[in-house]
Amino acid sequence: MKKYIGLSFLLTLLVMGCANRASAPGVSEDKILIGNVQDLSGPMKELGAVLPAGSNLYFKYINEQGGVHDRQIEMMVEDHQYNPQKAVAAAKKLIEKDQVFCLYQVIGTSPCEAIRPILAESGIPLVAPATQSGSMSDMSREAAELIFHTDTGYDKQTGILVDYILSQDSNAKIGLIYQDDDYGENVLKGAAAAEARTGISIQREAYQRGATDFAGQVANLMKGGATQVIIAGVVKEPIIVMKTAAAMGYAPQFFGTSPTMDHRVALAAGPAGEGFIASNFAYLWNSDVPTAVLYRELCEKYEVPEAYMGMYHFYGFATAQVLVEGLKRAGPYPTRNRLVNALETFNKWDEGAFPPITYSQNDHAGTESVVLVQVKEGKQTVITDWID
Hints:
It contains 13 helices and 14 strands. The protein has 388 residues and is an alpha/beta fold. A hairpin with a 2-residue loop joins strand 13 (371-376) and strand 14 (379-382). The N and C termini lie far apart (66 Å). The chain has helices at residues 2-20, 45-64, 84-97, 109-114, 116-122, 154-168, 182-198, 215-224, 236-247, 263-269, 290-301, 311-329, 336-343; strands at residues 31-38, 72-79, 102-104, 126-127, 147-148, 174-179, 203-207, 228-232, 253-256, 277-280, 358-360, 363-366, 371-376, 379-382. The longest helix has 20 residues, at 45-64. The strands form three sheets. The protein has a seven-stranded mixed β-sheet, with helices on both faces. It folds into two domains: 31-153 and 286-366, Rossmann fold, CATH 3.40.50.2300; 154-280, Rossmann fold (3-Layer(aba) Sandwich), CATH 3.40.50.2300.
């Protein structure tokens, strides 16, 4: 009898050992395949080129050191043209056909919101979605347990901007130009909370995703007497808004949420963008923090085109660090559940790009602080400490 018990015990250990080594989708002996969905041919196609390039810069650096647990990281990128329906199709292809291990850096609030049912159905994690919407870390939403945000939400950013404006000018009349989709919805949430907290009224002007004409919104803000205007756009929107305002003889103090914090805004807006203030959820790419220093060294080593270097390229680089750290902690035999559990061990993890990141089972926000950056003589200058 003891002989049979011993054999049964050995078989149990063998099964457990095999289970620990069971291959997950996208994981082979020498490779981990991850999936990314970007705008490669739509209104944000420039970012769709720059973001994955920044991520691949860091993956190349890691792969040349032997990868993660002796596996090379390979990233597949699909195009959604900044269209939520196409994001769903792209995510399904990556998960069902290409069998990626996880999703990473999917760009845009509405595309990320659209793929929630796919995440829930497949159990696949989405690490570092490329949107600052606070909805990404709302644990009451579908598939929230699978999404790990790295950025301070638009709602919180909007509240911080309003508080800063009022601290500088208690009589300010604030206007808001926002994208009329899930991105704008999160911004409006922050604006409404700020109004309730401060007693002010914020003038709202919407625009459709991909818009290139803002004359109507600018004229309405002029008529409403807005002295400070927050632009909740990406890169081209603040450029067009500020140039349009200048052409119309309108000169409020302009502010922007973090997607407007790209240095190309200052370059393209020219004199119209002087003094522009934007919130940012990470350190500047040209600062002296460790990740920024490594980033510039690798850009030089691998001869990255100067036109690529900047906030969005650095953002791809910095979020790749988060994913790699999660993969390391997931161990030599990673599964999707182990990646989720590994990320939830982050406790004030600080690699020198973002403020310290903390995740837990009940909180996937990562960080909740921003710094304000102002264009002075055509250059971006940090003008505050971290604000939360």
